[in-house]
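User: Can you predict the 3D structure for this chain?
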Amino acid sequence: MHLKRWITALTALPFIIFLIWKGGGYFAGLVSVACLLALCEYFRIVFNPKGRTVSGLILLLGLMTGLGIIWAAHKNSAELILGAMALNLMLSACFSLTQFKSDPVILENVAKQSQGIIYIPLFLSFLVLIRNGADGMAWVFLIIATVFAGDVGAFYAGRNLGWHKLCPSVSPGKTVEGAVGGLVGNLLVVGLFKCFFLTTLSWGGCILLALSMGIAGQVGDLFESEFKRFSGVKDSGVILPGHGGILDRIDALLFASPMAYFFKEYLLK
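Assistant: Here is the predicted structure, written as structure tokens:
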């Protein structure tokens, strides 16, 4: 399983690097595919009907809204992003009125779908906004490398040194020592980027950025684990051999990206 993880990562890496380098519509297209796949996995996890009916229209509307948010970010339009989210909720509300009499659970379905829109496409849109900005390519590579280093650091530190459970009710395998190892990996990567690519940033800001992204990423990882544990699902999907699903791979990235955006645009200027 561990070998499969590395083979999958190394196989996908050149393709991802190329699309990040190209930027523009190429990168937005990559994020769109990840968004659709992650949303499908999210819907599979949270819509555990247990004999209840889940409306395909609600799910389809969520997928269309997700694409709309990503391409609105490609156009650098915060107004369109907000408009897409508002329109999604209004249309879902209208549909719920036609279904409530026969299926009151429709309100729960609308809430879960709306949560997914914030959780996946909205958070992914920050990556597109970052790529469109100054030094965008370097920042996207920084975010991905930082999350990856945190994941690797947490895995090896947890496996070799882990003793104290971090959040056993959500993820029994994660440890405090693993979390610290992940933060060390975050710090190393951000330090390297500061030295070679983002030299104008201050060391203090970089340290705070690394720790903030690292903590946010670990929270994102645990947040997805909550969904899976509640629904009794081991992995979000099977599309990535050794890794599970797309959502399993981007759960930390989803939380780290907004954090990086706010640092880049407001805190490190």
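Residues 2-267 form one domain. The mean pLDDT is 91.
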